[in-house]
């Protein structure tokens, strides 16, 4: 992990928890942007919290730190979830789907997962 990210974790007072991972990023089937989508689920109650994307660097930081890290397509940068809001996602499990093209991250969510302040990004019903 790059020193700049280690420093950000240290400044936030986070304890790093390296994950034991039996796959590498090169094992994944990536989209055209060389990223993999990640469905994020609450480890305790199974609520779907959000969907985001990881590039290889974000995946490596997540595995090395135990804190969910993504690639922000809109900002074109690595995004450590919770670094500015304090609403961290501590990884409990990373699970790959049957096609190796989508990750399911089961996390312990601190605070809201959504930038709107909602616990989950999925709160607007459009059909029932």
Detail the topology: elements first, then pairings.
Elements: H1 3-11, E1 36-42, E2 48-54, H2 56-65, E3 69-72, E4 77-80, E5 89-96, E6 103-109
Parallel strand pairs: 1-6
Antiparallel strand pairs: 1-2, 3-4, 5-6
Structure overview:
The chain is α+β, with helices and mostly antiparallel strands and 128 residues long. It has a domain at 46-128: Phosphoribosyl-AMP cyclohydrolase (Ubiquitin-like (UB roll)), CATH 3.10.20. The protein has two helices and six strands. The protein has helices at 3-11, 56-65; strands at 36-42, 48-54, 69-72, 77-80, 89-96, 103-109. It has a four-stranded mixed sheet. The protein has a two-stranded antiparallel sheet with strand order 3-4. Strand 3 and strand 4 (77-80) form a beta hairpin. It is globular. The termini are far apart.
CATH superfamily of the domain at 46-128: Phosphoribosyl-AMP cyclohydrolase
Number of H- or I-type helical stretches: 2
Give me the secondary-structure category.
alpha+beta
Low-pLDDT residue intervals, each spanning 5 or more residues: none
CATH topology of the domain at 46-128: Ubiquitin-like (UB roll)
The largest sheet has its strands arranged as 2-1-6-5
Biggest beta-sheet profile: 4 strands, mixed
Annotation, overall tally of beta strands: 6
CATH architecture of the domain at 46-128: Roll
Strand content: 25-35%
The separation of the N and C termini measures: 45 Å
* CATH class type of the domain at 46-128: Alpha Beta
Estimated helix fraction: 10-25%
- CA radius of gyration is 14 Å
In round numbers, the mean pLDDT is 96
Shape: globular
